[in-house]
């Protein structure tokens, strides 16, 4: 995966969020996903890990001693601070190129990543443009993937907690976006996004219902019924449960009659679907 997308006019102060146009936001540093080579001019993996940490903990200063202890826990303070100084020098060159001057603030005893309201990283889309962040879900990306071995349990604990927080934000953003697609009859993108949600959390009934609604809305009623059948089988075989009342009611609506999906009213006169086993 590419960690840095070619910069646009952001460093000149252009708002990359693009208002509400829905156009893809480019020029963002990609922190979600597996690295396949550090973006130039970075040469240290711990520099990449430090960037992720500072991006999540931005707009405040962190003591050099604390950062050194976080990333080099087995070294003495002097050696750890020396390593941090080398990493910061290299990271500063990257930040000047990718993020703009003065974003990475380096002082004698503290370091911080200072930024305004414009998005700089892919993770910013979760807050600023949720529907533009859903590709992260579809591509199954994980924050700072591959950085688990960068330090000891303190960094690993922070990384795991951060991933859980971002995962919750991503799922929430995708759910809201998918529901909006369903409400506005954008069936094809709704199918893709609902499937991605269901793959991420296959036992979630709300996700299964989204997939069913999207298929039914696009006219693929048989596909919607098969989604229910697979979901029912999954719940029974792995959890010993049956689908809940709301999911069964949706099955009846799809199988016994066709919904007018825009108004939520039933349209009578359609044949009853075959009973599922």
UniProtKB/TrEMBL annotation:
SMART domains in the cross-refs: BTAD
Taxonomy, superkingdom: Bacteria
Domain Bacterial transcriptional activator: 123-255
TM ranges: none
SUPFAM superfamilies given in the database record: TPR-like
Protein name: Bacterial transcriptional activator domain-containing protein
Species of origin: Stenotrophomonas terrae
């Amino acid at each position: 995966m590419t960690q840095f997308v070619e910069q646009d006019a952001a460093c000149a102060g252009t708002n990359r969020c693009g208002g509400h146009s829905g156009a893809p936001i480019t020029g963002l540093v990609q922190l979600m996903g597996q690295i396949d080579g550090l973006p130039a001019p970075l040469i240290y993996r711990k520099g990449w890990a430090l960037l992720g940490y500072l991006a999540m903990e931005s707009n405040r200063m962190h003591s050099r001693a604390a950062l050194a202890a976080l990333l080099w826990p087995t070294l003495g303070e002097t050696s750890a601070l020396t390593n941090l100084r080398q990493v910061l020098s290299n990271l500063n060159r990257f930040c000047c190129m990718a993020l703009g001057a003065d974003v990475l603030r380096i002082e004698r005893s503290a370091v911080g990543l200072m930024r305004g309201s414009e998005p700089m990283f892919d993770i910013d889309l979760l807050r600023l443009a949720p529907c533009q962040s859903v590709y992260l879900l579809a591509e199954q990306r994980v924050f700072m993937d591959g950085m688990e071995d960068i330090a000891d349990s303190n960094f690993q604990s922070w990384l795991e907690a951060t991933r859980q927080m971002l995962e919750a934000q991503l799922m929430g953003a995708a759910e809201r976006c998918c529901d909006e697609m369903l409400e506005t009859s954008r069936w094809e993108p709704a199918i893709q996004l609902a499937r991605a949600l269901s793959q991420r959390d296959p036992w979630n009934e709300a996700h299964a219902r989204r997939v069913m609604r999207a298929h039914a809305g696009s006219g693929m009623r048989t596909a919607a019924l098969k989604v229910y059948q697979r979901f029912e089988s999954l719940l029974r075989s792995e959890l010993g449960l049956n689908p809940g009342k709301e999911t069964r009611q949706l099955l009846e609506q799809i199988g016994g009659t066709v919904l007018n999906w825009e108004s939520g009213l039933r349209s009578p006169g359609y044949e009853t679907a075959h009973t599922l086993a």
